[in-house]
Design goal:
single chain, alpha+beta, five-stranded mixed sheet, 4 helices, globular, binds tetrahydrodeoxyuridine
Length: 140
């Protein structure tokens, strides 16, 4: 069996979180005032950022995680792969990636890759994609 991807080091998570907070500061969130940032660590080492971009027609809003995925593909092309994602918000809320974002991230992450997000008691939750999205949709 292949070895599971090891949990990212604390310093690595700190770096991703600071980057995600920077992205969240750029959020366009005049409707919810909920500012979210996502930092993707690619398997090649680069960090790619995304933030939420809302719309007056609420359903058109794009979440930070999906905005980061779009930036990743734009900058690094269709073969880009994610080894860790850190999601944060400036509202001090416990908040994990929404279901739509989990499904989109899954297209570019292995099941054992990491998703880090703020937990219910101010702690950082560090979960594998497989824990957040068991039975994700796959074509064939
Ligand atoms: N949001 C994200 O950016 N990521 C998520 O995973 C869930 C929600 C954004 C969308 C919207 O702009 C705001 O948070 C409130 O729902």
């Amino acid at each position: 069996m292949d070895r599971l991807q090891p949990e990212p080091a604390e310093a690595e998570i700190d770096t991703l979180q600071i980057a995600a907070e920077g992205a969240a500061a750029n959020a366009y969130a005049p409707h919810s005032m909920f500012r979210v940032g996502a930092a993707l660590r690619l398997t090649t080492g680069e960090i790619v950022l995304g933030t939420n971009v809302e719309n007056a027609s609420y359903g058109l809003t794009i979440c930070a995680e999906r905005s980061a995925v779009c930036a990743m593909i734009t900058q690094y092309g269709p073969k880009a792969r994610i080894e860790a994602v850190c999601v944060t918000n400036l509202n001090k809320a416990a908040s994990s990636p929404c279901g739509a974002c989990r499904q989109v991230l899954a297209e570019f992450m292995d099941a054992d890759a990491w998703i880090i997000f703020p937990g219910a008691h101010g702690q950082r939750e560090i979960k594998r994609l497989s824990e957040l999205l068991p039975f994700g949709f796959q074509l064939a």
